[in-house]
Amino acid sequence: MGVEIDLSGRVALVTGGTRGIGAGIAAVLLRAGARVHVCSRNPPERLPEGAGRRAEFLAADVRDPEQVDELIGEVVRRSGGLDVVVNNAGGAPPVDTATVSPRFHAKIVELNLLAPLLVCQRAWPVMRDRGGSMIMISSVAARRAAPTIAAYAAAKAGLESLTRTLALEFAPSVRVNAVAVGVARTENFAEHFGAAAEDSGFADGIPLGRPAEPEEVGHACAFLASPLAGYLTGDVLSVDGGGEPHPNLARIAAEFRPAD
């Protein structure tokens, strides 16, 4: 007997859901039957689609408390409630950790850690009586050396700690989990991994032999949002193909190491 994930009647918000992993998540949630809202600072050229339906766009900077309040309020006004929050907005360009400005590091932590906390804080009153699922998009970088993305990795480690804390504080009505993503083939794939990304042997160290597709991250999110994960909270689910190609980390670091 097959098991299907049915999110019909559920209302979802995917931050940063207009491209990359976020768009993949939104498309999967749409196919599962959810009404999906996506947000980013700027309107996209194309919105995620699934099952003949399209995600609804809302402009918002999730680092700004007033804009987050407006975002949550507009989702509720349009759809009557909120059941699933996916904190996907984040990321960081590769930089030399030793020389980049303190302001840059502060902005990376703000986007990848403080913004998800803000979104969850503002969504909690809406979801408290209704119940639901909050999902943080983390990274395997939270648990290993992360050359050129030090502040990002530290913020993601904090995000996983936040996941465990909110799971305790928001239980039992709202479940809070995280998905730790490994190498994923997004629009920024080459930017993040540099020349190594074009190496035919780049994925050799991944047991499954390839980067993740964005919708494969979406499958994990749909599971965590569904009743099938009804007894999971405070957990971090790794979607990394069995592990990252650690030998490549040294090559990535070398590409960004300043010349003598």
UniProtKB/TrEMBL annotation:
InterPro entries listed in its UniProt record: KR_dom, NAD(P)-bd_dom_sf, Sc_DH/Rdtase_CS, SDR_fam
- Kindly list the GO molecular function terms attached to this UniProt entry: oxidoreductase activity
Q: Where is the Ketoreductase domain?
A: 10-184
Report the CDD domains cross-referenced here: SDR_c
Query: What keywords were assigned to this record?
Result: Oxidoreductase
Q: Which NCBIfam families match?
A: PRK07856.1
Q: Which family does it belong to?
A: Belongs to the short-chain dehydrogenases/reductases (SDR) family.
**Entries under PANTHER family matching the protein:** OXIDOREDUCTASE, SHORT-CHAIN DEHYDROGENASE/REDUCTASE FAMILY (AFU_ORTHOLOGUE AFUA_5G02870), SHORT-CHAIN DEHYDROGENASE_REDUCTASE FAMILY PROTEIN
What protein am I looking at?
NAD(P)-dependent dehydrogenase (Short-subunit alcohol dehydrogenase family)
Source species:
Saccharopolyspora gloriosae
